[in-house]
């Protein structure tokens, strides 16, 4: 089993390798205030932790959206300063969740270098069950979702059976598809008459895409918030006490 993520301590070179960026990029981000300063260890060597890795991943995701560094700087300033690496990973997954699919091809060696640990066949099965990666005809080549990669790896050491992950994935897919279907119907009714049978023209399709682009991040956050509250209620009922304990 790998060392806990909370014990992660990296040099700037190791951080660059894990994040897939250059040391120069890390230093540039630090001067812009996009990354918190490292902890200074023995011999005045800076040590970086999981929060730096997660923040770099979030910056990468925001750049994929076309945001400038100035816009990213303003965006990060609005986040609570005490967000943990786990919170940042979830935040990145949410940001990536409503972007177009853009799976990246990676060999097993590249994947292990990116996540900083050896991956067993069981690990790969669990990542596939969480939709983090898809196996290809070549057993050593995978289609990887970069937005979910680090969060999925952090969950590898959570003691939960693969069968449970697969069952949970089925539940999530069924209910999210149902929610997406109902929300799409609401958006459609907003754009034109509910009993209209003809297909939308090019201008109406463009308005629909624009509405979807503006609404998707808000809807995703609303779904996550509603789910968190519902889960707390379920746990509180199940455990008969404080669900946060």
Report the oligomer.
single chain
Class from secondary-structure proportions: mainly alpha
The major beta sheet can be summarized as: 3 strands, antiparallel
In order across it, which strands form the biggest sheet?
3-5-4
CATH fold-level name of the largest domain: Multidrug-efflux Transporter Regulator, Chain: A, Domain 2
What is the string of helix and strand elements?
HHEEHHHEHHEEHHH
**Mind telling me which CATH architecture of the largest domain this is?**
Orthogonal Bundle
CATH class bucket of the largest domain: Mainly Alpha
Return Rg in Å.
21 Å
Distance between the termini: 25 Å
Structure, briefly:
The protein has 245 residues and is mostly helical. It contains ten helices and five strands, in the order ααββαααβααββααα. The strands form two sheets. A three-stranded antiparallel beta sheet has the order 3-5-4.
Task: Describe the structure using short key phrases.
two-stranded antiparallel sheet, 3 domains, Multidrug-efflux Transporter Regulator, Chain: A, Domain 2, 10 helices, 6% strand, 245 residues, 59% helix, three-stranded antiparallel β-sheet, globular, Phenylalanyl-tRNA Synthetase, Chain B, domain 1
SSE layout and pairings?
Layout: H1 12-19, H2 23-31, E1 39-40, E2 46-47, H3 50-64, H4 69-77, H5 85-97, E3 104-107, H6 108-115, H7 121-129, E4 133-135, E5 141-144, H8 149-154, H9 162-191, H10 202-239
Antiparallel strand pairs: 1-2, 3-5, 4-5
Helix pairs in contact: 3-5
């Amino acid at each position: 089993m790998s060392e806990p993520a909370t014990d992660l301590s990296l040099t700037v070179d190791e951080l660059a390798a894990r994040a897939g960026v250059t040391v120069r990029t890390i230093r540039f981000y630090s001067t812009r205030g996009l990354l918190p300063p490292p902890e200074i260890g023995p011999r005045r060597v800076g040590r970086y932790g999981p929060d730096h890795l997660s923040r770099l991943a979030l910056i990468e995701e925001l750049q994929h959206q076309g945001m400038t560094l100035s816009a990213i700087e303003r965006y990060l300033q609005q986040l609570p300063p005490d967000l943990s690496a786990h919170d940042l990973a979830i935040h990145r997954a949410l940001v990536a969740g409503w972007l177009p699919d853009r799976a990246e091809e990676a060999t097993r060696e590249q994947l292990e270098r990116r996540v900083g640990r050896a991956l067993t066949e069981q690990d790969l099965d669990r990542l596939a069950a969480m939709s983090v990666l898809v196996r290809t005809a070549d057993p050593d080549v995978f289609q990887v979702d970069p937005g979910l990669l680090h969060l999925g790896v952090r969950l590898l050491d959570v003691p939960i059976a693969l069968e449970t992950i697969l069952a949970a994935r089925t539940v999530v897919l069924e209910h999210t598809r149902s929610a997406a279907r109902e929300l799409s119907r609401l958006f459609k009714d907003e754009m034109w008459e509910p009993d209209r049978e003809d297909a939308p023209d090019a201008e109406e399709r463009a308005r629909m895409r624009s509405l979807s682009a503006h609404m998707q991040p808000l809807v995703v956050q609303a779904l996550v918030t509603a789910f968190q509250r519902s889960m707390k209620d379920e746990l509180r009922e199940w455990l008969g006490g404080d669900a946060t304990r």
